[in-house]
Amino acid sequence: MTGGAGYIGSHTVRLLLERGYDVAVVDNLSKGYRHNVPAGLLYEMDIADTSGLTGLMRKLRTEAVVHFAAFSAVGESMVAPERYFVNNVGGSLSLLTAMLGAGVRHMVLSSTAAVYGNPHAVPILESFPIQPVNPYGESKVMVETALGWFDRIHHLTSVCLRYFNAAGSAADGALGEQHEPETHLIPLILRAVLAGKPVTIFGEDYATPDGTCIRDYIHVEDLAEAHILALEYLLAGGSSDQFNVGTGSGHSVMEVIRAVEEAIGQKVPYVVGTRRAGDPASLVASSDKLQAKLGWQPRTSALKTIVKHAWDFARQHA
Q1: What is the C-alpha to C-alpha distance for residues 308 and 285, in angstroms, rounded to an integer?
Q2: Is 7 annotated in the active site?
Q3: Which domains does the chain have, with CATH numbers?
């Protein structure tokens, strides 16, 4: 697994180990944390190191790769697109080249609903046009496109999981969001509460009921489950495919703030700022295809549950 010391990756590592899988984590720790990975599983390496990856996968007799390693901040990608194309696209091509060299022919890709840009309707279906509005989304489109060609030419099968707002923490509080800098809404709100400083809402003039952006928030443990189902599907001989991972229900920024206030019993301090470049008004992903084909269900993604788990983790690690 690449990026297994990060937020979603570390939860997926944990679930894979619980299911009895042998796991190795490749991470350069630029965004992840060593303490997120159980002892003995971490190989500190950059995915740009093609020869190093090839040798490691040969040594470990790797069967499949779950690929999380990527930069994922939309706002940053609008300022420094070169970082996203070099890291997300170039790094993924290095990894794919290494997989070919090591004889590994299955990949689960952590993709994003940002590939759809500003969808013409919600919830988003996999058949919707691919038209990203920021370099982050474009970088994932490029990797998905490359995977299609690697399948046609090298018979390397893949599943691309397109999701948007991963949220929440492990139910026992052992793992959670620790991005630096933090860009995700729920942990930013909780940090604002704990610090007594206002969180910034980026825009209140979108074409939504309350003027703030709407997103599909999915619990990180439900996301981890989706990655394992995708992995098992490929290992069982499944063909390459793309799946949305979402609840089918969107929540606005203000709705999330109200949910936090209800959960913690106090007001959230906030100020309204200008829109962030590259932010669509509404992104809600239908997961009907994933549920029908792989049997996935969002079991812990109610907003109330997400907020509770995130708040428990935030208080423990303040």
Answers
A1: 23
A2: no
A3: 7-167+218-245 (3.40.50.720)
